[in-house]
Design goal:
There is one protein chain. The chain is an alpha/beta fold. The chain has two domains: 103 residues, no CATH class; 153 residues, 3-Layer(aba) Sandwich (Rossmann fold). Helix content is 35%, strand content 27%. Strands 1, 2, 3, 4, 5, 6, 7, 8, 9, 10 and 11 form an eleven-stranded mixed β-sheet that branches. Helix 5 packs across helix 6. The two termini are 35 Å apart.
Length: 316
């Protein structure tokens, strides 16, 4: 659930505020028959692809930001970050494959709490980490200071990143690229073009069409869904998963009704790719695909992989 770009959450909150007012009327005996039906229709409504974006609902809320950081730091699970064994193996592969060391410059887009950045910096490379989460950046800076590492951690929206230098390697890991709309991805690829050295490389991973085929449309509700992730107080959460076959996109829509306070909806979009579709998208932004791997640890690619990694350079 990583969504670093500018949110469009206000209309969603407004809709649910209107529903809250309707609920008060219902409690007063007005509109006894249709309110719940209309509310459920709204909850189960299928939006257009990438129609609504709610990144801030994840990152600007203090409680959810703390939950996301806890997921990042849980070494045993692959939720916000991958498990520690994979990160160690992947970081070693990246360091060796791209010959990182003194004099090399690396930028980690969506660095989270610095799990990759801190390991890549051990090579002696100059590392920049960029993330939308203030909590994650604060943790990363504290860990770097504790370890005596000089890593430049930047808090901000990477779709608005204005680099002051060029990098030999840009990494975007944990399929962050998939959370962006086509327009946002083109915007980001333009930023990559502007801050990648002429002989530099781009490494990113994405969800595959094999992973898309495993997704199914579902709908359910649960009290305190995700073990209290969404709110400090008790709440009900309605979860709808929609698939858009023409676009190879999945939406997980979370409609959250806390015990007190305004209800809210969170939209978690994911774009899925084939090697051909990602190569085409990169080519349109001036990149040439050099290698495709099964993941960012260099595992060989197969059609059964639920994700894959791609190495690209500037097209000549």
């Amino acid at each position: 659930m990583r969504s670093p770009s500018r949110p469009l959450a206000a209309p969603v909150v407004l809709q649910f505020k209107q529903a809250t007012r309707a609920a008060r009327k219902l409690a007063d005996g007005a509109d006894p028959g249709g309110f719940m039906f209309r509310q459920l229709e709204e909850i189960n409504a299928r939006p257009e692809v990438f129609e609504i974006y709610t990144a801030e609902a994840l990152w600007a809320d203090d409680h959810r930001a703390e939950q996301m950081l806890a997921f990042h730091l849980d070494e045993t699970v692959d939720v916000s970050s991958r498990n520690i064994e994979f990160i160690d193996r992947s970081s070693a592969w990246i360091t060796d494959t791209f010959r990182l060391g003194p004099g090399k410059r690396v930028c980690d887009f969506g660095c989270g709490p610095g799990l990759y950045a801190s390991r890549l910096a051990k090579s002696g490379a100059q590392v920049t980490g960029l993330d939308f989460s203030r909590n994650s950046i604060r943790y990363a800076r504290e860990e770097a200071e504790r370890a005596g590492q000089k890593i430049d951690y930047v808090h901000g929206n990477y779709l608005a990143f204005d680099p002051t230098q060029r990098y030999d390697l840009i990494v975007m890991i944990m399929c962050d690229f998939c959370a962006l709309s086509p327009v946002q991805r083109q915007q980001l690829l333009t930023i990559f073009q502007n801050c990648l050295a002429d002989d530099g490389a781009l490494l990113l991973d994405v969800y595959s069409m094999a992973a898309y085929s495993e997704r199914a449309e579902t709908s359910f509700y649960e009290r305190n869904q995700l073990n209290g992730f969404w709110c400090e107080e008790d709440y009900y959460c309605f979860v709808n998963t929609f698939k858009y076959d023409r676009d190879a996109v999945v939406l997980d829509k979370y409609s959250i009704f806390p015990k007190s306070g305004a209800p809210q909806a969170v939209y978690n979009w994911l774009q899925y790719f084939s090697p051909e579709s990602l190569t085409t998208e990169l080519s349109g932004a001036g990149f040439a695909t050099k290698q495709i791997y099964g993941d960012v640890s260099g595992r060989p690619f197969t059609e059964q992989n639920t994700e894959f990694a791609i190495v690209a350079t500037k097209a000549t």
